[in-house]
Design goal:
Strand order of the largest sheet: 1-2
Low-confidence stretches: 1-30
Helix content: 55-70%
Largest sheet: 2 strands, antiparallel
Number of strands: 2
Oligomer: single chain
Structural class: alpha+beta
Length: 95
C-alpha cells in the first residue's frame, strides 16, 4: 500500500508498510521486522479463533517489540537465540 503525497514541484512516495520515503531509511527506527511479522500472523490466527486472551497478549507483545530500535531488537533477538540453544542442549543431555 503506497500513499503518494505531492510536495512542491516534486512527488514524495511514502511507503506505509515500513515508513520509508523514496526507499530511504528513517534513521534506524524499528520497522516491522521478522518477529513482528510472525506475531502479526499469530494475531490473525488468534482473531480467527476468537481467543481473546491470546489476542490481548499478542497485541501487547507487538506493541513492546515495536518500541525497540534496530540495535535493541538485534541484541534481544541474539540473547533469546542463545537461551533457546541452551534450553535445547539441556533437554538433550537429559535424554
Amino acid at each position: 500500500m503506497l500513499a503518494q503525497n505531492n510536495v512542491g514541484a516534486g512527488r514524495v512516495v511514502h511507503n506505509e508498510v515500513d515508513g520509508n520515503v523514496d526507499g530511504v531509511s528513517d534513521g534506524g527506527a524499528n520497522k516491522d521486522n521478522e518477529l513482528v511479522l510472525q506475531l502479526t500472523v499469530q494475531l490473525a490466527e488468534a482473531i480467527n479463533l476468537q481467543d481473546r486472551d491470546l489476542i490481548a497478549q499478542l497485541h501487547e507483545t507487538i506493541r513492546c517489540v515495536r518500541q525497540f530500535d534496530n540495535h535493541e531488537y538485534l541484541l534481544y533477538f541474539t540473547i533469546m537465540q542463545e537461551r533457546i540453544i541452551i534450553i535445547i542442549l539441556c533437554n538433550m543431555t537429559q535424554l
